[in-house]
């Protein structure tokens, strides 16, 4: 079995460090990938520090993976050696439940297999993610990546891109809609770009005054400092849809009251502690909805990658070396990311 190099958390309170492990040789349906870049999602930090519970250590995070195919199994028809490909948050699912059959593998009734910290059907152990030089994945969970786009900027599309694209599509965002995006981090900056490309008028809500100019450059038509009550009041009852990407518990009512009649706010952030419950009256008063959304299915992820290639959309990234990962986590906690860290896997060397 091929040896893999990576970075792992050995415990919730330990920094990530160099770790060697084995990947399987490709089975007949598998694609082996040499990883070029891996994005750093806030979910990686939540899980490496066991903030959601259930993390199995050692944990090799990373689910925004792009690279080149190095070997394929004999039944692989979709990919060839040398192809540029991506892997997102899932590497398998039951494939037989109603949700899998409908292309909603992320909502698999039997639980999808996460790219990391998932139950590995092959080894019986736990899956290891993309903070690594190589990975072996079933062809049905591998995505085609356009060579037209900057590859490092594509990596974050595999989670931040699809997690924002899917709800924008599901709630039918289009020309003429006023869409709020809460938080300008990895997910938020993709939401701004995608909602804009879908034709919406975009209002970005941020706690960071230093991000105002960037938000406008990224495509926001309006930027609101969410701590400023007067600025918030000016948007009451005006938004058709809000995508809330914040990774920490906060008052949802301040945003729900910005929705117009029949408007929806969808949560995609998964804070370690839940938000305080919103006031029922704010929902009733304008028939508003509060919803949630989880990544996206494989077919929709491919649709999103193709949409981004067509519209020239990638993530704004800050490239880091593998050794810088612990510092990157600390900066992410301070909302100091512009707007996604991406690990250059060429910097991961045997120790
Ligand atoms: P991120 O890059 O750290 O961005 C989060 C942004 O939220 C920050 O940049 C900041 O933006 C804002 N924020 C942070 N703390 C805040 C606070 N205390 N109050 C108000 N705003 C705050 O994180 P990310 O990678 O985009 O991920 C965001 C969340 O989505 C995480 O919880 C992650 O686990 C989750 N996630 C969910 C899914 C899903 O399928 N649903 C998929 C991926 C990630 P400003 O500086 O602009 O205020
Ligand atoms: Zn993620
Ligand atoms: Zn299923």
UniProtKB/TrEMBL annotation:
Family named by the database record: Belongs to the zinc-containing alcohol dehydrogenase family.
Protein name (database record): Hydroxyacid dehydrogenase
PANTHER family according to UniProt: ALDEHYDE REDUCTASE
UniProt domain Enoyl reductase (ER): residue ranges: 11-343
Keywords, alphabetical: Metal-binding, Oxidoreductase, Zinc
Entry-linked InterPro entries: ADH-like_C (IPR013149), ADH-like_N (IPR013154), ADH_Zn_CS (IPR002328), CAD-like (IPR047109), D-isomer_DH_CS1 (IPR029752), ER (IPR020843), GroES-like_sf (IPR011032), NAD(P)-bd_dom_sf (IPR036291)
PROSITE patterns reported for this sequence: ADH_ZINC (PS00059), D_2_HYDROXYACID_DH_1 (PS00065)
GO MF annotations in UniProt: alcohol dehydrogenase (NADP+) activity; zinc ion binding
Classification of source organism: Bacteria, Pseudomonadati, Pseudomonadota, Gammaproteobacteria, Alteromonadales
Cofactor(s) the protein needs: Zn(2+)
